[in-house]
Specification:
cell wall biogenesis/degradation, alpha/beta, 16 helices, nucleotide-binding, Folylpolyglutamate_synth_CS, Protein-Tyrosine Phosphatase, Chain A, EC 6.3.5.13, ATP-binding, six-stranded parallel beta sheet
């Protein structure tokens, strides 16, 4: 008897009704152009069938793959999804980035038929780091990718060691055949992998030429997660990710499964090398051949808002999601390594962004200001960001042209006006701001 037939008749009836209601809601929301219906259908269906996540995920033929972490979830999930689809697999994926429980349910619901049968080979679900402990047991994942842990929305989540301890506690209770793939360069995740009883594969870099000149101000975890002593870093790649050892207890970086030099990347930014290695390690574990993986990487298109390139009024625009200190420092690194001189920063403080915007003072905006050019600032907290940039100026004789524009549409128009046809406008928005920017530029909503 197959998995679907094991579900009791009464469960099938309740599940079928929940699916019917969810699909009706999806149809209405999309027909009325109110958004992508990426959360509401799951929220309503869950009230009808509370075990929705479990009943749907257990129908996935080859298993569920969870991708968790602070930064890089959407890009990694999309790359792995594309690799598997290019190999001929049918994949369910929460592609809009709705990564809380209702969003996961909606993604699974979207791939079912009218009676609640889910006929896919894999489900790739990017999961918000704070809900990982709640969804692991109902999902029973085949693979868990642990990308990184940075400070992000401290008003909601707290410090990284707290999250790591919760992850370790729950993951260790999963079946031994579960495969866990942590980031070897992240001390907390490296230790997590070393403590688990399951099969563990690591990904990470071994390219000292990419070390930063110094440990950045926005560093989150330079102390040994095992004994608390300061770690000795041979070098850091970004934030606290790097090559490290503990001189006190001997804890050291885990050995990555793949040699990072042997794998190229097409997306900008060193952070995307991590995303590429994570997806590649998972794909190889699933039996995908290297030719398919490399061809996919070389032709990969960025997820919306993540190093996404658009052409607006004949000018190139690149959107670089910037939602926390580490991520923003990395997008600033991309901007400063280019020759482009116009940048738009959009800072919001809504629930998806985190209501505490004090993190902008941990961002190395000085590097952006030093190069001069035009910086346009907008968003709900436009004046906070403008003040941060003014404090970044080292002299009154700065070459910076700072433009403060609270109206987002006007800010985008102004930034485009200051962008020469031969250059790229870089836009660095927080999450909700990124959705607004894309709606202004493309004329349609994502969520």
């Amino acid at each position: 008897m197959d998995v679907a037939n094991k579900i009791k008749v009464i469960d099938r009836l309740r599940l079928g009704f929940a699916v019917l209601v969810a699909k009706s809601v999806t149809f209405l929301v999309r027909s009325l152009r109110l958004g992508a219906a990426s959360v509401l259908p799951g929220s309503i269906a869950r009230r009808i069938e509370p075990r929705l996540l479990q009943l749907l995920s257990q129908q996935v033929q080859n298993g569920v793959i969870i991708i968790a972490g602070t930064n890089g979830k959407t890009t990694t999930a999309l790359l792995l999804c594309t690799i598997l689809e290019n190999k001929g697999y049918r994949v369910c994926h929460n592609s809009t980035g709705a990564n809380l429980e209702n969003g996961l349910m909606t993604a699974l619901l979207d791939s079912t038929n009218l009676v609640g049968t889910l006929d896919v080979d894999y489900a790739i679900l990017e999961v918000d780091e704070n809900i990982v402990p709640r969804v692991l047991k109902p999902l029973q994942p085949r693979i868990i990718l642990c990308l990184n842990l940075f400070r992000d929305q401290l008003d909601r989540y707290g410090e990284v060691d707290t999250i790591s301890k919760r992850w370790t506690k729950v993951i260790s209770t999963l079946p031994r055949e579960t495969v866990v793939i942590p980031n070897a360069d992240d001390p907390t995740l490296s230790l997590l992998g070393q403590q688990l009883p399951q099969k563990v594969l690591f990904f990470g870099l071994n390219e000292p030429e990419h070390y930063l000149e110094a440990i950045p101000h926005a560093v989150d975890s330079i102390y040994c997660p095992q004994c608390g002593h300061s770690l000795d870093y041979q070098g850091v790649y970004l934030s606290h990710l790097g090559d490290f050892t503990c001189p006190s207890c001997g804890f050291t970086k885990s050995q990555p499964t793949l040699a990072s030099r042997e794998w190229s990347q097409i997306l900008v930014g060193l952070y995307n090398k991590y995303n590429t290695l994570a997806a590649t390690t998972a794909a190889i574990e699933l039996g995908v051949d290297e030719t398919t993986i490399r061809d996919t990487i070389n032709n990969f298109q960025a997820a919306f808002g993540r190093a996404e390139d658009l052409v607006i009024d004949g000018k190139r625009v690149r959107i670089l999601l910037s939602k926390n200190p580490v991520g923003t420092n990395e997008t600033i690194r991309v901007v400063t390594q280019s020759t482009d001189k116009t940048t738009l920063l959009v800072l919001n403080d809504r629930t998806p962004d985190g209501t505490d915007v004090s993190w902008i003072w941990d961002v190395d905006t000085e590097k952006l200001v030093e190069r001069g050019g035009t910086l346009v600032v907008s968003g709900d907290r436009v004046y906070d960001m403008a003040l941060r940039l003014r404090y970044s100026e080292k002299s009154a004789q700065s070459n910076l042209n700072l433009i403060v524009e609270a109206d987002l549409r006007q800010a985008i128009a102004t930034a485009l006006e200051h962008t020469p046809a031969t250059e790229t406008l870089h836009i660095l928005p927080t999450y909700s701001a990124m959705l607004e920017v894309r709606e202004v530029l493309t004329g349609r909503k994502i969520l």
